[in-house]
Design a protein that fits this description.
alpha+beta, Phosphorylase Kinase, domain 1, Transferase(Phosphotransferase), domain 1, 2 domains, 6-stranded mixed beta sheet, two-stranded antiparallel sheet, 8 helices, 33% helix, kinase, receptor, signal, Prot_kinase_dom
Length: 256
Amino acid sequence: MRRLRRFYINIRTDKNINTELRYFTFQSISSATNNFASTNKLGKGGFGEVYKGKLVDGQEVAVKRLSKTSGQGIKEFKNETELIAKLQHTNLVRLLGCCVEKQEQILVYEYMPNSSLDSFLFDPTKKGLLDWNNRFVIIDGIAQGLLYLHKFSRLRIIHRDLKASNILLDDYLKPKISDFGMAKLFGINESEANTSRVVGTRGYMPPEYLIDGTVSTKIDVFGFGVLLLEIISNKMNYTSYDVDHPLNLLGLVSYI
């Protein structure tokens, strides 16, 4: 935990990082989430749970409480604070601050009132709320966010886990890419690398990455292509065999 505190201090003193990154006390986070009440819980992922919170100034936030048992928790914490703190784009979720206290690793983000894209696409009661103009804006916004990550930001970043549940929607259904815990940082002149640790979500990863561990912007481009199909069709790309869905979304496209 001391190492994490030193890490946070280094972040705050890095002149290349947005100095608006704020440190929250555990007490303030606990109070904002009603002591992490189940009624405030927004969701749960591999790295921890996310809660809705309200700061003393009235600002609504999303609080990601990283799991103490997850071996990837510290890596995600470092990835998020190192990378997102340096990024500023309208189609990327904004990291407001963090908390390292009482064996806790907590990340605080801007709150997205319309949850994530998957909650609209794959919910029969909500998918009709997205008209074609909404869908175009969402597709364009995701593309703009990726273009910024790959080409126009001060860093070159491969997200590696682009999927509908990692696309958050604001009040106006405009998209923001979230969850950079698996992101890979590239050097300015670096275009490809190899890894023995393949991370991401099956169904959104290209074959060369799954088989050979080849890391490049093509990972995100492939994921974007799958997302595009899901947004257009309202169908999920199933990643395992299902008797009711013998072909996944990519298989159906190939079949057609």
